[in-house]
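RECORD TYPE: inverse folding
INPUT: structure tokens
STRUCTURE:
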């Protein structure tokens, strides 16, 4: 029985390799105790059971002792045989136990979307897989599953994952989408359908924004999350620029609408002529301006390779967005409509930069590009941006 131990600033992992049976349990317990008492303080302890072949009752007692000792404790990558033992003895109800995940390969698969937290591939004609960026935790994956189910229950047409897998060392979510295409792919194949698709795209936004999230929902507050993302990017921007972004957010009214918060054209799938949502990791509740501003940031002012990320030429994507927002605000007086568009553009300035908080491993060139455009997009228009945002209180 071999043991490996790593403590990364209080986030510790104990790897068990071999058979944890009665013959070795006493020594294993002693070795673990020595490792835990000769290291920095531990806040989270993970047992990596990927190579644990067998566990006896004495081995179970070691796990139980550790679970009682550490508030944040979990066992991961458990093979079926060991999982059955943990499940039968009630351990799966007392602590977090994660099964070993099957491995899939995306070699040769078509890329249908690239985002801040991962890449979406088509596995075959019936299924797609979202592969999360390296370093993404299971907590992030679980949140996306939960948000998809929550939105579905509230009435949104949402693709729900049926399997969590591993692609190399990265997590993946598998979705069944029979004969589905992204909105981008449909538009690229038939650009003459832009007006028809824009109307449906606008309907999707409206349908979602009409849903009021109940107080007991697990869906998080989008405005609070946006503020935390802005605070997260302080290591990229000086404090005065962070403060300006927070000033913009301070003008956003409260709200209870369901928001996707990354509803760009590659995060909309079309199946049997119906649009449905994917990539639900950022779902929240709040005022619709946040959702529309996030989408504007992707569809109009995106930083990065537009064709790769959105899947269509920028000119076509902007045309789709302009038609969509016309349909979304259909019926508003012309002066109010013009103000709403200015407000969306102003609030989108936050998302232009806050999305860098989605990962700490973006290419340095992309980060530097964001830094270089801050003054051009925000600082130089500070007074105008804040003036139109102050009028958001009248947006009912």
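DESIGNED SEQUENCE:
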């Amino acid at each position: 029985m071999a043991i490996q131990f790593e403590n990364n600033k209080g986030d510790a992992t104990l790897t068990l390799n071999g058979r944890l049976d009665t013959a070795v349990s006493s020594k294993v317990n002693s070795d673990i105790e020595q490792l835990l008492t000769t290291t920095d303080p531990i806040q989270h302890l993970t047992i990596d059971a990927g190579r644990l072949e067998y566990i006896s009752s004495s081995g179970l007692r070691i796990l139980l002792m550790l679970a009682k000792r550490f508030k944040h404790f979990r066992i991961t990558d458990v093979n079926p045989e060991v999982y059955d033992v943990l499940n039968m003895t009630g351990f799966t109800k007392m602590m977090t136990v994660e099964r070993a995940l099957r491995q899939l390969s995306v070699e040769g698969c078509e890329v249908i979307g690239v985002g801040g937290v991962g890449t979406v591939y088509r596995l075959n004609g019936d299924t797609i897989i979202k592969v999360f960026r390296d370093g993404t935790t299971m907590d992030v994956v679980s949140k996306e599953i939960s948000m998809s189910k929550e939105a579905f229950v509230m009435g949104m047409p949402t693709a729900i994952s049926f399997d969590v897998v591993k692609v190399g060392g990265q997590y993946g979510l598998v979705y069944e989408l029979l004969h589905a295409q992204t909105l981008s792919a449909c538009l690229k194949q038939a650009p003459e359908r832009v007006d028809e698709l824009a109307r449906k795209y606008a309907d999707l936004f409206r349908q979602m924004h009409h849903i009021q999230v109940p107080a007991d929902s697990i869906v998080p507050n989008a405005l609070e999350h946006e503020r935390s993302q802005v605070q997260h990017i302080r290591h990229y921007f000086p404090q005065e620029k962070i403060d300006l972004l927070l000033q913009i957010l301070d003008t956003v009214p409260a709200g209870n609408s369901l928001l996707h918060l990354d509803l760009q054209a590659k995060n909309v799938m079309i199946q049997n002529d119906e649009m449905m949502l994917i990539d639900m990791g950022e779902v929240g509740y709040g005022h619709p301006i946040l959702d529309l501003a996030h989408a504007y940031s992707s569809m109009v002012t995106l930083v990065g390779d537009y064709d790769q990320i959105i899947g269509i030429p920028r000119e076509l994507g902007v045309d789709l967005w302009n038609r969509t927002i016309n349909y979304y605000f259909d019926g508003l007086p012309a002066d109010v409509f013009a103000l709403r568009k200015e407000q969306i553009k102003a609030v989108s300035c936050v998302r232009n930069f806050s999305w860098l908080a989605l990962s700490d491993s973006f290419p340095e060139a992309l980060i530097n590009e964001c830094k270089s455009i801050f003054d051009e997009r925000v600082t130089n228009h500070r007074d105008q941006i804040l003036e139109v945002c102050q009028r958001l209180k009248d947006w009912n």
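NOTES: The chain is about 45% helix and 20% strand.
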